Amino acid sequence: MTFVVTENCIKCKYTDCVEVCPVDCFYEGENFLVIHPDECIDCGVCEPECPADAIKPDTKKGLEDWLALNKDLSKVWPNITKKRPHDPEADDFNGKPGKMPLLSREPGEGD
Ligand code: SF4
Ligand code: F3S
């Protein structure tokens, strides 16, 4: 089992989640974060920290595609462990449906 970052993180990327992860298994893209499923120890502490409610356990039904995406992108994106100020537009995108087409596969800065 692992936790998975899902659609509502796209263009929100609040980064509160990275501060609490005990094993630093978040990886950063331009407008989205992912969890490395082989590094996550399933502690669950990141789930309630996300203001966008974007982090889910992979035991939840229908997350297979998101799990695959987290796995693939965590191999090529840089590690992020420190929270940083989010984009001013983040609150406008929080809760917007259909954000998948806005997902950038470009890597973020990491830290
Ligand atoms: Fe990190 Fe725990 Fe969240 Fe997994 S569940 S990503 S180990 S904080
Ligand atoms: Fe994304 Fe939520 Fe973390 S919006 S960056 S999963 S705090």
Please give a structural write-up.
The strands form 2 sheets. The protein has a two-stranded antiparallel ribbon with strand order 1-4. A two-stranded antiparallel ribbon has the order 2-3. With 111 residues, it is an alpha+beta fold. The mean pLDDT is 97. The protein has helices spanning 16-20, 64-74, 90-93; strands at 3-5, 26-28, 33-35, 55-57. 34% of the residues are buried. Iron/sulfur cluster is lined by residues 3, 20-23, 25, 35, 40-46.
Descriptive labels:
111 residues, Alpha-Beta Plaits, 4 strands, 18% helix, binds iron/sulfur cluster, binds FE3-S4 cluster
> Architecture, CATH level 2?
2-Layer Sandwich
Number of helices: 3
Associated small molecules = iron/sulfur cluster, FE3-S4 cluster
Major sheet characteristics: 2 strands, antiparallel
> How are helices and strands ordered from N to C?
EHEEEHH
Count of distinct structural domains = 1
Remind me, CATH topology? Alpha-Beta Plaits
- Specify the structural class: alpha+beta
Shape: globular
Q: What is the percent of helical residues?
A: 10-25%
* The CATH top-level class label: Alpha Beta
Strand content: 5-15%
